[in-house]
Amino acid sequence: MALPSVVTQARVSPSGGADDTASIQAALDTVAKLAPDADGIRGAVELAPGTFRLAGTLKVAVSGVVLRGAGSWGKDATILELTGKPHLAIDIEGEFHQHELAPATMLTDAYVPAGATVIHVADASGIHRGDTLLIVKPVTPQWVHFMGMDQMWRNGEREVWLKSDIRVRRRVASVAGNTVTLEIPLTDSIDSRFYPGFMPPVTRVEVAGQIAEDGVEDLRIRAPKRSVDYGKEPEFDGIRVTNATDAWLRSLEFVDTINSVRIDRNVERMTVTQVNVIQQAAVTSHAKPFDFSVDGSQILLDRCTGRGDKVFYVATQSESEGPVVVLNCRFSGDGAIEPHQRWSTGLLVDNCEVHGGTIVLMNRGEMGSGHGWTIGWSVLWNNTADGILVQNPPGDANWSIGDVGEQLSAPMPVFDRSRGFPLTGGIVESSGKHVEPASLYLEQLRERLGPAAVAAIGYR
């Protein structure tokens, strides 16, 4: 469905003074106290054209609140100028409380493939349509060994790839006997070979505290231009979203923010559309900042753009269970679209361009703190980049289909070059020539929900 057009409930103009944080925050707090409508929306705070100075962080912690400017570019743009000590511009943050509603039943499938919407459990008598299930993929020594992730070292100490089980929440579409159909497919496989004598738990849960229907739109966030020793110096960052559902960022521009858009844990069903990031700062560190960092589920990045060097344009983070879609995005510079660390699944990069950089689905090995296999069960579709690197994790697959760019290969990165591990390349089809349908995501959306759903997000 289309993103909502929210009625203005408060207006703020630039003061011309040293700091407008308090006046904008007061307007946000006023709207937060209004009663929500039937869709859970309270209203928008509308910022006038001009430059607002922001020495502090604007906070949204209640559902249904939107911050909107007059535009992100041109003479009538609304600009949030970050001043003072380095800080985050906007923080959208709910709470997260997960409660078990009943004792766990057990998954009985010997193998659940990635993309499955049907699972079988020992006892589904307490599970009903609309329930939320917590499904566990056990992280066992057997699986870690199978993935080749138990022999990573740095400075004489063993690196640990994953420390805890992987958990994903899915809503129930229907139940028949002990067969449960999920609304959203699972993006990872679950294989009983790697947890002998153990049945993974499936638990009916209730989640509370997440905020919903919050958005930021039509403004520019600008930070002071300076060199960046990333990870060691304080940062001017853009927007962070945590513990939120059905949220959006629309028609924004970020200039010289270090980490511009950060979608953290427990964010579900979020759209980021027509957001531009301009990174002019010189990155002096080995580590790289992120234009778009994703650690949530059911995330769409649509028609986003960026320009800058030595940066991750889009990166998934640790144990991010998708689906995550990067659609019709355009970036330029020597950066990359690249899952960052520790096993995410369900990424689709569709019709994107990286001029001067790469699109990568790889094993990062001993890089960082032992990032290892970053991604599985993911697809690159009809993209263009200087370099395309796709590798297959053991027992999993990644695809490059219709991508234009040099197909690369690389060993697993290790500090001791004598221990280099060769890696299996991913599945490559129609390299150098785009395929039909032009967009895998839009075609699947049309098949599921019809042409109106495609039109609702701005496509024919």
**Main beta sheet: strand number and arrangement?**
28 strands, parallel
The low-pLDDT segments are: none
Count of helical regions: 4
**Classification by helices and strands:** mainly beta
**What gap, in angstroms, lies between the N and C termini?**
14 Å
According to DSSP, the number of beta strands is: 39
The quaternary state of the protein chains shown equals: single chain
Radius of gyration of CA atoms, rounded to a whole number: 22 Å
Helix-residue proportion: under 10%
Shape: globular
Molecular structure report:
The structure is a single chain. By secondary structure, the chain is mostly beta strands. It has a domain at 98-208. The chain is 7% helix and 42% strand. The protein is built from 4 helices and 39 strands. The strands form 4 sheets. It has a 28-stranded parallel beta sheet that branches. Strand 13 and strand 14 form a beta hairpin. The chain is globular. The relative contact order is 0.11.
Quick take:
The chain has 460 residues and is mostly beta strands. The protein is 7% helix and 42% strand. It has a domain at 98-208.
